[in-house]
Each structure stands twice: as structure tokens, then as C-alpha cells.
Amino acid sequence: MTIQMKIKYKMLTCLALSFAGLNQSCTDNLDVAPVSVITEDSYWKSENDANGALNGLYVLLRRQASENLYLWGEGRSEVMGLGVQGSGGRERYHDNSLDVTTAGPNWLGMYYIVHQANLILKYVPQITFTSEANKNNILAQAYTMRAYTYFTMAKTWGDLPLVTEPTEGYDPATIQKPRTPVAEIFSFVKEDIAKANQLFGESNALAQGRQFWSKPALNALKADVFLWTAKRLGGGETDFNIALAAITEAEKADVSLLPKFEDIFDYTNKGNKEILMAVRFKDIEATDNHYSLMYFPQAFLPSDLDVATKAAIGLPAGQNYWAPSATIRSQFTADDTRKNASFIEVYTAASGTQKFVGSLAVKFNGFVNSGIRLFLDDVILYRYADVLLMKAEAKNALGQDPSAEINKVRERAYGAAYKQHVFVSGSKQANDEAILQERLFELVFEGKRWWDLVRFGKAFEKIPSLKDRVGKDYLLLFPISEATLSLEPQVKQNPGY
């Protein structure tokens, strides 16, 4: 069974489950029997059908956000190292030893999202809605989701099979596609962004919820895309200006920095005013996400753990398969409030000498219910501090002073100690270095660091496992797995692998 055939069968199941309100099961098993009750011909009849299909689209995104987005976007950076429980194979990421047999998560789940978006874009226009604005909003979200998905895949693998229509047949000539050059993929992404922007209209509202794509979230994505093409695909000044304009539009929405950094990530504070777009995780609707693999189980806590650290950790849980690296921990200063809100170091004082045991990420530590810690914090795709630092990046590239944006972020981070950390603009190169460093402190563990390093051209400089491999630029892309190549005869491996 080819990838496209699996997608065909799978998406019929997702349509059925979305309509029934049982969305959490859409991606549990790949090889499923075709659904006989719901087909494309019988499903796409009403506004409720369209809403159900859109709901299914977000369920598919949640499956990828559960771990894969982090593996692609941060796992290969210098952020994480071995945990106290070993690695569970995750050393392949921070050691940058991926190969065709151990290639990381493949793109199949992302193409599920593309297929679902393609179905919506094909069939929703023919449905009669009570409000044309509601129809346009669904179509806008589908275009945005497709743009985000291709953007993510293009950053990860480069050239991609470009699928613009639902997979509704099994003719190999139709369903098996070669890879389209990455520049054309980005042109397609930008076209989808433009279509979504038009369909969203003039509203900058986030009233539907910050777990759904909206015009402000679209503009954050647009800025991200154009910063990437400005730096990686030769877009230069034109693309930097477009990114800056998109950020200006995003700032018109109801967004602001929260007074306290740690409040952004509190489970009880989901959808707060700093969030532009997050993937929603809730009890009963979803299982623990990848942050459970960064916490600390009881068995590895020392018996003489100090009271303050014990209180900060609270109920031990999860599996410490990878942990904040010494490289990262050492860069935070004690007066940066983001330090204690991001990670904890665990020490034992056995034999009267303090000895390091391990570390854990606490930025997304979930919540405790009936004596069980559940790791169900939202996976944040875009928040206002991220947008401010993208604005600083664009301004600096255009020869403008990025101080205002950097200092907004620093003022919250350092609080009473802010005067010792005021940023003063210098050369473009020095400013870029400061912006990249500020993004590390602000966004660590949020799935951004690898892509930031690639965009800034700093991966071989900053990542220990890549420092002796300068010039091997093929490593900036992921390999394509043998399983994917065996299913897709027209797809060729990335050079170097």
C-alpha cells in the first residue's frame, strides 16, 4: 500500500471521527480498513460537515505537535543532552548522527494534514453556508494550515512532492510524484498565505480561540516564512520588508507580553494574550506530549534533595530521556527570570559535597490531577515575544535599530535587574548575534532553536556535534527514511545521505 493509498483510507476515517466528535483517534493507527459509511460524495453536504473536517485538520496537527515538531525544530540543536534515564535513541538528534535507517519521523503525518486541507479546499466551496464569512474563514484556515505544513516540511527536507489536490485515486501516474524544488515549494507557500489573507478579510480578531489559525497568526507565519526566504533563498531586502509589514499587522491584534514569564505556560492559562497560535492539548482529548520525556521521575531524585528544588519540581513524573544540556544551562544568568521558569538542576549533597545529578525542563510541566502529573500544556507555534524578536531581526537586516523590541523582551525577563541588561544597538553582525541569543533564552524548549540556527547560518558554529563538520551543508536537512523511499519510487534521497 502506497503512502497515498494509506492517506486515502485514513482520511475517510478522520472525516467520520471528526463528524462524530471522536477526533482524538484519527491518527492512532495507519493501516485501517476503508470507511464504508462516509465517502467524499456523501460527506461534503453541510456546514457541519465542513466544521467537522476542519476540526479533524487540527487533530492531525496535534498528532505532529505531540513530538515531531520538536524533533524537527529543536532536537538537533545544542539545547538537549542525555537524561538520567539514558536517551531512548534521542542522542541521534543532538549528536547529529541521523541516517537513512534512523532518519527521525518521516513526512507521512504531515501529508495527512496536506490531504485534509486539500479536501476542505476542494469541497467546502460547493457547500451552502448560513454566512459567507464562515465559509471564507474555514477556507482561510485550510490555506494557512497547508502553508504552515509545507513550510515546516521544506525547512526539514528541502525539495518535496507537491500535492495540491486530494488523493482520490490509485493511479501510480497520479499519486506518485517526484520532489519539487524547494524554491517552488516556497512560492506555493506564499501563494497560500496570500489566499488565506484575502479570505480572512480585515478582521484581526482572535475571538475564535488562539488554538485556531487567524489573521494575526497568519501574519506571524508570513513573517517567519519571509525571514527564511530572505536569508536562505536570496529574498534579501524585499522579503525582509514583507516580513516586517506582516509583523506590523500581527501587532494590531489583542496581543501583549504577560507581566510574568512563567504565566505564559501555565496549564490554567491556556490561550492567554501572549499567544497567537498554539496547538491545544487537554485532558481526556489528548495523551501526554513530548515534554513528559524532559521531566524527572521519583526513582532518580536524590534522597537529600534540598527543600527549594523539591518544591520547584513538585510531583516527580515522566521519563528523563533527554535533558537541558550544560551548554545551554551555563548561558543563563542568575538574574534572568526565564532560567528557573525553563529548567531545574538537580544536585545531591552526599558525603558533604554537592554533586550534579541531572536536569529537567519545567517550562511545560503540565498539571497534577488526582496524584498524577499530566503533560498536556499547549505546543506554542507563535507568541508575541517570538514576533517581537522576529521584528528585531527584520529591522536589523534593513539597517534599522532593533533595540526597542529586544528591550521589551529583556525588561520582562530581568525585572528589577533590567538596567544591567539594556540592549544598545551595535553593528548588524553584533545585533544579529544578540537577537539569536535572546531567542535562545526566550524560546528554549519551544521547538525553534534548530531552525533559528539554520536561518541565521550558525548551526556549525553553535552546535558541538557539528563544529568539526563545517562545509557539510547537507546536514542542515534531514535524511529521507528508507521506508519513505521504498514507498515513493520517484522520490530521491537528499544528497550526502
From TrEMBL:
All residue ranges annotated as the RagB/SusD domain in the record: 377-497
Gene3D superfamilies listed in its UniProt record: 1.25.40.390
Pfam assignment, any one: SusD_RagB
Chief localisation class: membrane
Segment forming the signal sequence: 1-25
Localization in the cell: Cell outer membrane
Keyword Membrane: yes
Keywords linked to the UniProt accession: Cell outer membrane, Membrane, Signal
Domain of life: Bacteria
Residues annotated as domain SusD-like N-terminal: 101-204
Keyword Phosphoprotein recorded: no
Annotated family: Belongs to the SusD family.
Protein name as catalogued: Membrane protein
Lineage: Bacteria, Pseudomonadati, Bacteroidota, Cytophagia, Cytophagales
